[in-house]
Design brief:
Blueprint: H1 2-20, E1 22-28, E2 41-45, E3 51-56, E4 62-68, E5 70-78, E6 90-97, E7 101-102, E8 110-118, E9 127-136, H2 137-140, E10 150-151, E11 163-167, E12 170-171, E13 174-184, E14 187-197, H3 203-208, E15 215-223, E16 230-238
Parallel strand pairs: 1-7, 6-16, 10-14
Antiparallel strand pairs: 1-4, 2-3, 2-5, 5-6, 8-9, 9-14, 11-12, 11-15, 13-14, 15-16
């Protein structure tokens, strides 16, 4: 009897330790009018793009995953039945899950892919440079290129009025936009380098910055006037504390 009791205590203790190593990733997938999208595959990946965790959204667009606490390479959302027909994909990068984390993907027919950001090494450290590669479903449909050619599926230009960039949920002022050629998988594509001012002095930005402690969450929504398409991409950037 005493042995059984000790075993039960040990099982309880180990269960508690394992629970402390996990956190909940959850959210809701919608279109840009707020309508839920069901049956979207949510995949948490490593740098080799292997799926570590996967689930589907329910009829209300909601999902939830219990995952090991870690920094994950990316989160990927796709509804396979819509892919390359009416929608492309949503991506979030450098996803730090060390506490319960809410991510709410939105996506449509403009993919905002490969979001990266860094802080330029110049005082007073007031900006981020953000890079992403926009990919249009409309421009990409039926296109083919030879190896070494340029795959022209990005908007020809992007203006500040077409971008909604938020840091920790607060609008960031755009101070520069540069179009860049990127080499990838034997071809060239167009990306954009956007420089923004950090909204760090706004009270709501200071409050929201602790939502993911030690990281800034950068969200980009692109509404292309050229193609009439819309897309969203996000990334987490480790904050350099001063």
């Amino acid at each position: 009897m005493r042995t059984t009791f000790l075993i039960l205590i040990l099982i309880t203790l180990f269960s508690g330790l394992n629970a402390q190593d996990n956190a909940k990733l959850y959210g809701r997938v919608t279109d840009f009018e707020g309508n839920p999208i069901d049956s979207v595959s949510i995949r948490l990946k490593n740098k080799q793009f292997e799926n570590l965790y996967e689930t589907l959204t329910d009829k209300d667009g909601r999902f939830s995953l219990l995952v090991k606490m870690d920094n994950y390479y990316c989160l990927y959302a796709i509804k396979l039945s819509d892919y390359k027909k009416t929608k492309l994909e949503y991506w979030a990068w450098n996803v730090p899950i060390f506490n319960d984390l809410e991510i709410n993907p939105q996506y449509n027919n403009m993919e905002v892919y490969g979001v990266n950001a860094f802080e330029p090494q110049v005082t007073p450290h007031e900006t981020y440079r953000i890079y992403f590669r926009p990919m249009s479903l409309k421009k990409g449909n039926g296109i083919s290129v030879e190896k070494g050619d340029t795959l022209n599926i990005a908007p020809e230009t992007i203006t500040p009025n077409e971008l909604d960039i938020k840091i920790n949920g607060v609008a960031a002022d755009i101070v520069g936009i540069n179009k860049i050629t990127e080499y990838a998988r034997g071809n060239y594509l167009y990306g954009y380098d956007i420089q923004v001012l950090k909204p760090k002095n706004k009270p709501e930005a200071i409050k929201n910055s602790e939502s993911v402690k030690g990281f800034d969450k950068i969200s980009i929504i692109l509404r292309s006037k050229e193609t009439g398409e819309i897309g969203k991409g996000e990334a987490f950037v480790k904050r350099i504390e001063k």
